[in-house]
Every structure is written in C-alpha cells, then in structure tokens.
Automatic annotation (TrEMBL):
Limits of the ATPase AAA-3 domain: 41-171
Species for this entry: Sporolactobacillus nakayamae
Alphabetized UniProt keyword annotations: ATP-binding, Nucleotide-binding
Taxonomic lineage of the native organism: Bacteria, Bacillati, Bacillota, Bacilli, Bacillales
Database matches in Pfam families: AAA_3, AAA_lid_2
Gene3D superfamilies cross-referenced by the UniProt entry: Magnesium chelatase subunit I, C-Terminal domain (1.10.8.80), P-loop containing nucleotide triphosphate hydrolases (3.40.50.300)
Xref: PANTHER family: METHANOL DEHYDROGENASE REGULATOR, MOXR FAMILY PROTEIN
Keyword ATP-binding (UniProt): yes
Family, as annotated: Belongs to the MoxR family.
Name assigned to this protein: MoxR-like ATPase
Any GO molecular function: ATP hydrolysis activity
Length: 321
C-alpha cells in the first residue's frame, strides 16, 4: 500500500467485508474503523444477542494480525491476561509466559464481569502501551487494539467501569436492534455454518500502521481546533455537568476527527467530522450532577445540546499546497 487512493479503497473494502457478516450495521463498523485508524480503543455496550462479539470477531479476522479473545469472569486473575513468570527446571531459569494481552487485536468480552484488579491490568496496557508483570515492564506490540463488550442490563455479579477507566476508551458504542428489513435479510441468509469461518484477512499489521500514519497527517486548521476546543470547554462549564472532558478526551477527539476525514477521502477536517465524532468520543467521559437526574437528562442528550449551541466556524482554511 503506497498511495492515498489505495488506502481509501482498502478502508471501504474493509467495511464492506465486515458487513458480509454483520448485516445493516455500517455506521457501527465505520466507527470501529475510526478507532482502529486513530489508535484508540472501543467499548461496545448493548443488550445480549445483538451481535457484539460477532462484530468484534469479524473486524479482527479481517486483519491478518495476532487475535486474542479474553472471556472476562469473576475469577479471572490479572496474570491470566498479562502472563506470568515461571521457573523452568530444565534450564534453571525464570521464563516469562505471555498472556493473551500480548496480541494485536484483543476482544475483551464482558469486561464488566471481572474484578477491578483484573480490569486495571487491561486498562494499564490500553493507556500506557505496556504491562507490568512481577515488577518488569513489557512493551505491547505497535498494533494493540482493544475492543471490549459489556451488557448494560445484567448488574448482578458485575463490576461497572468507573468514569476514570471509561476515559481510556476512545469510543463508546451501542449496536442496537437491526431494522425489520435487515433482520428479514438475516433470516433469509442463515447459513449451515459459521459465516466467520469464510472471512479472510484483507489487511496486514503493516497496512494498519501505514494507515495510522496517513491519518495523523490529515490537516486540522486553527479554526477547526478552536471549534473543537469550544465544545470541550462547554462540557466543563455546563450547569448540569460535574466533571467535563479531560485533556485525554481532547486529544482523542482530534484523532477521531482526523480518522473520519480520512475515511471520507479528505485531507482536511470539516465541522461535520467533529459533529460525527463528538457523541461517541465525549458522552462517556462526562459526569453529570444530581440535578441532571431530576431533569431526566442523559449524557448523550447534553452533548448533543452542546453541539447545537456551539458556533460553527464559517471560514475554513484548507492546507496550502
């Protein structure tokens, strides 16, 4: 892959490729692709049975990388995911046996079913790009992408992620039910075998790293940066928000809008890119005041209110050739 035309083509092909398995969820697939290209991680929260695990597995299988699935349970230990050091009696030396977290694409299934201590081991890798085992810091691969799932309605025996840990995810998504037409199509094409078994990789690790470098070069004008900061600042000043978006969220939003612009085959960011990213990047990063509950307000509705009230820049400067 050595041209922007080829890069844009392979991204469209990736989205189409995943849609052969996950019907009618192009928006969600595109957003996961945004996170992949921006170097962030994704949390998918939805009811059971809407295809969270299948979607994540389809994305992972479309990339020729080391894929690991971790089923989080209450008895899972940090060493079960990071690995551990054991004594090899044959050579009389201690050896590190890597855990599933040392892969490229990680499916963290039902992350809220495990203890905070084990959650922290995963989140250290997500935030720092390394893990610590027996006092030794070990670097994770250059391509390290976590897609975590959790069910919002099963509270017994779960450990909900606190806001400080939710902040480690670039995007928080919900898949939702398919519409009637798509679900009927799904019934018509129910196969005798698992559709994932026929899914072949169309991207390599090097391809993804190349695309990330291309995304990082997408131009963001001074006007667009100020527009982005106006939205961030509004979350810190809103009367119903107790804690606004952190600087980590600001950086994440910038990376996300660059990725959206790149997927839309542009070399610069426009206001629509920001509007498309903000609900998924910011809504899970704010903490509401008690008054918000009295008014029956949710984080997403407040974020959308902020978008609607923030002045859109009218003079945009494209990059100088």
């Amino acid at each position: 892959m050595n041209s922007s035309v080829e890069a844009h083509h392979i991204i469209s092909e990736l989205i189409d490729h995943v849609e052969t398995v996950v019907v009618g969820k192009r928006r969600v697939v595109k957003l996961i692709t945004v996170a992949l290209l921006a170097g962030g991680h994704v949390l998918i929260e939805d009811i059971p049975g809407v295809g969270k695990t299948v979607l994540v597995h389809a994305i992972a299988k479309s990339i020729g990388a080391d894929f690991k699935r971790i089923q989080f349970t209450p008895d899972l230990l940090p060493s079960d995911i990071t690995g551990l050091t054991i004594y090899n009696q044959k050579n009389a030396q201690f050896e590190f046996r890597p855990g599933p977290l040392m892969g490229n694409i990680i499916l963290a299934d039902e992350i809220n079913r495990t203890s905070p201590k084990t959650q922290s081991a995963l989140l250290e890798g997500m935030a720092e790009g390394h893990i610590t085992v027996d006092g030794v810091t070990r670097e994770l691969p250059d391509l390290f992408f976590v897609m975590a799932t959790q069910n919002p309605i099963e509270y017994e025996g779960t450990y909900p992620l606190p806001e400080a840990q939710l902040d480690r995810f670039l995007l928080k998504l919900s898949i939702g039910y398919p519409d009637r037409r798509d679900e009927l199509s799904l019934l018509d094409r129910v196969p005798d075998h698992n559709p994932l078994s026929n899914l072949k990789p169309i991207l390599s690790v090097d391809d993804v790293l190349y695309l990330r470098r291309q995304v990082a070069s997408v131009y963001v004008s001074k006007e667009m940066k100020n527009y982005l900061m106006d939205i961030i600042q509004a979350t810190r000043e809103h009367p119903l928000i107790a804690l606004g978006v952190s600087p980590r969220g600001t950086i994440g939003l910038l990376r996300a809008v660059q990725a959206i612009a790149f997927i839309e085959q542009r070399e610069y960011v426009i206001p629509d890119d920001v509007k498309a990213a903000v609900p998924y990047v910011l809504a899970h990063r704010i903490i509401l005041k008690q008054e918000a509950a009295y008014e029956n307000r949710e984080p997403l509705s407040i974020i959308q209110e902020i978008i609607s009230k923030t002045k859109v820049p009218v003079s945009l400067k494209e990059p100088i050739e």
